[in-house]
Amino acid sequence: MQQLLVFINFLAAHFKAVRKSALIKIAPANAVCGSRNRPRHVHPANCGTLLRCSGVATGLATKVSNNMKKMAVRTAALIGGVPAMAPAFALDGQYNFQHPVTRLAEDIFGLHMLMFWICVIIFIAVFGVMFYSIFAHRKSKGAVAATFHESTTVEILWTIVPVIILVGMAWPATKTVLDMKDTSNPDITIKATGYQWKWGYDYMQGEGQGISFLSTLSTPRAQIDQGEYKGDNYLLEVDNELVVPTGKKVRVLLTAQDVIHSWWVPAFAVKQDAIPGFIRDAWFRAEKEGVYRGNCAELCGKDHGFMPIQVRVVSPQAYTEWVAAKNAEKAALAAPQSAPVAAPEAKPVASAN
């Protein structure tokens, strides 16, 4: 964050200096007083005064030239320093993607940064050529515009180069999209059902099959009503979290009971709509233990912001223990309760009459 602020302050100072230098406009005396270049509105008698000022003009021109050279050096250092500063905030969730914890998420992040730097290079190249052309071919230097109307070489280049760039971008993008859609051969299959406004999870296949539970927001109402301090996981904590093991391919089947929802966990690079009457699917294979959070990403009603997603990734051994505990809890709930012993009926008291 500190490096980003330094970078922004440097930009502000840099362009302030550029603007200040651009306000100084100098017309060389010989360009005005030359017999061949003198405009008609300049009288020859005034050329002496202009020529006497030429020394001052030359000094100012030299100063501006030196300032421009310094600014060029600073700009080169700035452009060269951007890639070095990028890792400091490239993976900061506040400015960029969350830290990827799956191979697919890493591929998507790498693809995102590839497109970003391609755009940066194109931006620098196009605007660099434009500003150089404006400066080096300005009228005050006596530049004369070319009169050609077409160039076969240029037309071929500006057709082939963009095609090469687009193909270079499309190849890894297509490969990543195909990987995102490959939900075959999962180790665990979980159905996630969206409700207003909670999630239901059913372990359909693999270790943990038969486990089902609902997951609802657990943030205290006092925090929501501004009565208490909001914690770090405000509106991102649930009572029953989804638990999966590391290194296992988890397929998530998505549907909804009422309206359209969307299951989104940024660290997994998973975002898929849950539509009533349809089954959509996605997958992930988490490689790092931890708790990862997400939200419903589709506007689904007044409490749309109150149905978070919380996934706990544990080791395979810890996952087996969690499954055993859940099955024991399920068995305890399903066991028939012993019938209470009925109290003996009271006999009616005989009447004294």
Short description:
The chain is an alpha+beta fold. It has helices spanning 2-22, 29-33, 47-52, 54-90, 103-136, 152-181, 221-224, 316-334; strands spanning 188-195, 198-205, 212-215, 242-245, 250-256, 261-265, 270-274, 280-284, 290-296, 308-314. A hairpin with a 4-residue loop joins strand 6 (261-265) and strand 7 (270-274).
Any overview of this molecule?
- The protein contains eight helices and ten strands.
- The protein has 353 residues and is of the alpha+beta class.
- The chain has three domains: 1-96; 98-140 and 152-182, Helix Hairpins (Orthogonal Bundle), CATH 1.10.287; 188-333, Cupredoxins -  blue copper proteins (Immunoglobulin-like), CATH 2.60.40.420.
- A five-stranded mixed sheet has the order 3-2-1-5-8, with no helix packed on it. The chain has a five-stranded mixed sheet with strand order 4-10-9-6-7.
- Strand 2 and strand 3 (212-215) form a beta hairpin.
- Residues 1-7, 14-65, 67-90 and 349-353 have low confidence and may be disordered.
Lateral strand order in the biggest sheet: 3-2-1-5-8
Q: Please state the CA-atom Rg, rounded to the nearest Å.
A: 35 Å
Residue runs with pLDDT of under 50 for 5 or more positions: 1-7, 14-65, 67-90, 349-353
Question: Would you identify the CATH H-level superfamily of the largest domain?
Answer: Cupredoxins -  blue copper proteins
Structural class, by secondary structure, is alpha+beta
- Share of residues in strands: 15-25%
Order of helices and strands: HHHHHHEEEHEEEEEEEH
CATH architecture of the largest domain: Sandwich
